[in-house]
Amino acid sequence: MKKSIIFLVMILLPSFLTAQDKNSLLIKPGEIWSDTDGKNINAHGGGILMYKGTYYWFGESRLPRSEKDRTHYGVGCYSSKDLINWKNEGLALQVINDTSSLLQPGCVIERPKVIFNKKTGKFVMWFHHELKGQGYRAAMTGVAVSDRVTGPYRYLKSLRPDAGAWPQNFPDEYRKLTVSEKDLKSWTEEWKKAVREGLFVRRDMAGGQMARDMTLFVDNDGKAYHIHSSEENMTLHFSELTDDYLDFTGRYYRVLPGESNEAPALFFAKGKYYMFTSGTTGWKPNPGRLAVADKLTGVWTPLGNPCRGTEEENKITFGSQSTFVLQMPDNENRFIYMGDRWIPADLTNSPHIWLPVEWENKTPVIRWYFSWDLNEPVVPDNTLTDKEKKEGWKLLFDGSTPQMWMNAKAKTFPASGWAINEGTLTVDPATKAAGGGGDIVTRDKFGNFELIVDFNYTTGANSGIKYFVDTEAEKGALASIGCEYQILDDRMNPDAQAGISGNHKLASLYDLIPPVNVKDNGAGIWNRARIIVNGPHIQHWLNGQLTVDCERSTPAWRELVSKSKFKDFKGFGEAPDGRLLLQDHGGEVSFRNLKIREF
Ligand code: GAL
Q1: DSSP of 305-318, one letter per residue?
Q2: 323 exposed, middle or buried (CB, 10 Å; 0-12, 13-18, 19+)?
Q3: Which protein residue's CA is at the shortest distance from atom 2 of ligand 1?
Q4: 90: helix, coil or strand?
Q5: DSSP secondary-structure letter at 578?
Q6: How confident is the model over 104-134, as pLDDT tens digits?
Q7: What is the pLDDT of residue 24?
Q8: Is the separation of the CB atoms in 225 and 201 below 8 Å?
Q9: Does residue 283 have its Cβ closer than 6 Å to ligand 1?
């Protein structure tokens, strides 16, 4: 008997584990990402090194603002076999508690990267280093080394690169120019021209070139480059490192002079070098940029914004700033864009934005995914992955036809006021002709379910997702009544202030329960609603955060209903099933990726 149980466990265990592993390979950009101890991964502006089958993620280990003791600050290191489950390996580099050290507590360490030197067998870390009490004036880079990948790394020095050397691609005539900063007013055309012609290169010749946002890149021939924003962040410098990667050779190249690039993240694919960068707006996100080159040291050609989202999303790179591009070891053409969604007041908890790099011919692009599976190819909007199909998910919208929806009263899809365009289902009351528009409902009814709806509201808009809708109620007079997941531009629509304790706000259970933990992406940007109904239990989620969690059909529920607009509606919200509804309520709102699974 015992033997057969053990045997059964042995057969079942591997498949159970694989199922578990498979389930956990979801990347959820922007959501809280916990390490194996359940704490937020504190590795920002970071990069990843793959060594002997394990990934090591290095990044800024930011202290909470309230923390007075600055000694536990430095470069965090996490390890993982699958890129999802990360173990905290502690600080790989820690500030040195000695006021004679440049690396003393109170200094700033940003964008650390680690590379492995095959010749010396050592791990080399470089990082943007600003000195205590000097803001961002020092503009230095620091270097540290270790025999073990996880550290501790031994701090060697900080410096400004390439002192005394001219860039390799610097025309002779620029060397002789004498114009200096005091002759020009910043940001005038003359000043910009002078910057392009090496104003700051000449200024910083003796002491070394400025080095702020940085990354490292090992070229196909093993030569490593330190790539940094230089010249007051106006121009990138690609500085060659010595064979041991511990110093600069003095050979360096100016890239995209005068174009203000930060946050460089490079990769080599399909025979070319690609680089994501950002503009220079501090912690605030700006439109992403992409450039391409045949040779690492240039010439680099800008390819525009790699984001393929809404106008608002492209303006802020999906709320991120690039930091690294990871090449997947199993497929040389698969890459992950890594970025930071900075929270200046709480850098420790800045979310990580990882998105798959996709290709439009030879151009890498990024699209937004609320979640995507490392093991599965990403699928276009309004489609299901094989895994989702197996899990019982069904689409409520195929991206091009309205067949699952009808007007709540007329039982046909509205001829105007609703439109299907480029994979979105949009309500736009401005386009409504007489007899058009109105709320739309599903042709099917649903009882216990999990529903996902991506929505994108315009400024000031109001809409909602209702459930348990009975289109026959009072012979159709109450065809649109149901529990509602509120969609509202809380900032611009006055209804956000109405109701009781905020129970009209985005992601609330409208007029009944105010939402908590609301992380609204804002107008013009996709948000994801998730509604779970299981018997009496109801949950609303917004962008991965639980906003409403309640039980219906209880005395407390009935009490809430009695104080709401629904007080005269008998048994409000207590039906075993009903239709789903998308509301036409003034203001343009788009929907896509409408998916449901029933329990
Ligand atoms: C950003 C930069 C960050 C950090 C920040 C400080 O532009 O990319 O790494 O330096 O500015 O404001």
Answers
A1: --B-S-HHHHHTTT
A2: buried
A3: 282
A4: strand
A5: B
A6: 999 999 999 999 999 999 999 999 999 999 9
A7: 53
A8: no
A9: yes
pTM score, whole prediction: 0.93
Q: Which residue has tokens 């940085």?
A: 214
Task: Over range 136-142, report the average pLDDT.
Answer: 98
Please list, in sequence order, all residues whose beta carbon lies within 8 angstroms of the beta carbon of residue 46, skipping any fewer than 6 positions away: 57, 58, 59, 60, 76, 111, 112, 113, 323, 324, 338
Indicate if the alpha-carbon torsion angle 97, 100, 101, 106 is positive or negative: positive
pLDDT recorded at residue 228: 98
DSSP 213-232: SEEEEE-TTS-EEEEEEETT
Ramachandran assignment for 533, one of left (phi > 0), alpha (psi -120 to 50 degrees), beta (any other): beta
Q: Token pair for residue 78?
A: 């996490």
Neighbouring residues of 193: CB distance < 8 A, sequence distance ≥ 6: none
| pLDDT > 50? residue 9 | no
Tens digits of residue pLDDT in 443-498: 999 999 999 999 999 999 999 999 999 999 888 888 899 999 999 999 999 999 99
Protein residue with least CA distance to atom 8, ligand 1: 263
Q: Are 75 and 93 contacting, i.e. CB atoms less than 8 angstroms apart?
A: yes
Place of tokens 């194996």: 36
Residue 32 CA to ligand 1 center (angstroms) comes to 22
